[in-house]
Amino acid sequence: MKIEHDILIxxxxxxxxxxxxxxxxxxxxxxxxxxxxxxxxxxxxxDDSADDCELTLDHRKxxxxxxxxxxxxxxxxxxxxx
Length: 82
Description:
Strand content: 15-25%
Structural class: alpha+beta
Strand order of the largest sheet: 1-2-3
Distance between the termini: 35 Å
């Protein structure tokens, strides 16, 4: 998966709109697996996808793996400022 501008491009070339390249998680319920896009929190699996299809289970897993790696890189780059 990669992010180009406002589009998330999955390994199988499926594209989803994500305003500003922003991706987040929903936690409205214990079993909530909603992935949100953009600054205004529009669920990616609704009509806001670039190709008008729902985020599949495999795509949700792909986004999760991608974001885990992003957070690891972020963590490794932190400096102790205390």
